[in-house]
Protein 1
Amino acid sequence: HSDEIARARLKQNEILPERVETNIFQVDNVYSPFSELSGDGLDYWTGEDKKGLYGLLFDCTGHDIVSFLQVGEIRALLKKGCKYYQSGVYSNLSEIMKSANEDLFALHGDDTICTAAVIFYFDFEKNILHYCSAGIPSFYIKRGNKMEEILMENYLIGYEPDVGFDEKALELEDIDEIIFSSDGFSELLFKDMQDTDPAKHDDVSAILVKLKRNIAK
């Protein structure tokens, strides 16, 4: 059993994306499992011309081998959908979420487990962020030293088989940084400074995108 966990942990670490930096943006990630395995997943990559940034982040239930298998499944479905979007098969991010949701119910039926997720596309030519949530409640933007929370709504993936998901857009003007995160990261980010328990209580994951304002404006 310990060997199985060790192999799973190694595989999770191997597929983590590395920092990406261009003359337009820089993207890093935070990835810290609560225990040996993480129920979170994240990925990001650029378009061929490096003028766009695609990404996904999701939060499955648990931190064990079962959640590890679920993480792999959700990642594969969302990554496939993003590639379809990137190649023009899908015209918006909503189709990615809808397809992933339908595929999960086709595979598991009533045993489908709910997952919170968000997918995004930075269009740096038009200076717009496109995003679509499935249960991730919010993300964060920074203008100068001020942090703002952007609320999102949508069903969790796996909640109902025939629900829709709404794509939203945000103009990037004057935004210096955008953070997509799991609940574990949000909990630590806004933890009361007087809290006597500094320990984390969940997997911690985030994607941090810094914009180079002299280019992005």
Protein 2
Amino acid sequence: MFFGDLKTYEDCIKLFDIGICPYFTDMRQLSDPLTYIRGPNRIISLLFYGIPSVASPVPQNTQALENNRHVIFAVSEEGWYQGIERLIKQPKLRNRIGKEG
């Protein structure tokens, strides 16, 4: 399916099982003033539709969202793999985080 065939953003988002919301590649970027830091809007949008996410723990996210309750935070490559794997292999966790939205 080509996403251009979908009528709305909602049609597209409902196809997701897990959200992946990276904001930087490593913690050093957090201190770089040229790194564009966004708020938790993307994660909250996914939660609105019951979709759990793995995301970077930028300050705006950690102020609004709780790790393992609203989102799974990841920093390292291994952390991203583990977070995604947890949501894939643990349907109760995936559903609980999705319902917290």
Protein 3
Amino acid sequence: MKKHPEIQKQHRLSQVYLKKFGYEENGEWMVSVMKLGSGMTENVRISEFTAEENIFDLPFKDSEIKRHFEKLSGKLENDYPRLINNIGNQKRLTPKDKDLLNHFVPNILCRTSHFRFFINLLIENMETRKKLLNEITLFKEDDGQTEFLLDILKPETHLNIVVGTLMNHLVYVFKRFKKIILKSPDGYGWLTSDNPVFIDWQGKNEWIMPIEAEIYFPLSKQYCVFLFNEHSELNSNIIRQLKIDKINQIDFETFDLLANKIARNLDEYLIFSERYRPTNIRK
């Protein structure tokens, strides 16, 4: 049996994902970023960016169970280049592509600091914890197992215990969301950030992922996926009228509006789609 290292660098943002916005230099993949408040662009190694030690480990001795989330993330990342290639070559989403998106977007969401901080706040309060657990087990009964583990394990382990069940719930929800691919105008590329999944709750904040939610997720420099539920009563967004499961070329005005929403969703870092020399943006 392969022995897992006790200390493992785990990435909040997938390295495979970041390469779609980065560049290769001297055999190493880099990405141009800007930290919130600094005004200065910098180029960082993708292998080191957003990497932390054992942040997704579960509090169990068995290494397979302990690293379950990280192992699952790795499997999804292995298929990601195929997804981007398929979109470019076939100009549409196949059923297999849609299934990968149903898993990949929740996986990235459950890895990012901003979303995890929000979920942790809900866990810490007993009233909101109960509501959270009721929601994420709405479609799959877990016989109170998650709640039992929260009762017996240390508070610092609670987030990773919940995240596995939460991601499974989001996969189920996203299977019911329609998907539209938005292509950036020629000469422009999508930005992303260390909080790349932009969720517009449309004022419906009673649920983690309400039926009214509209989601934007930059897939690469060229492509961004838009997800929505067609049964939402709030359906005035004209992007919903574009071709489902297909590439849709959007104009600059639409692109600029969405790119700004995605950029403002950052936690700490904005990630560019082009290589920038270290530059003081404010000057």
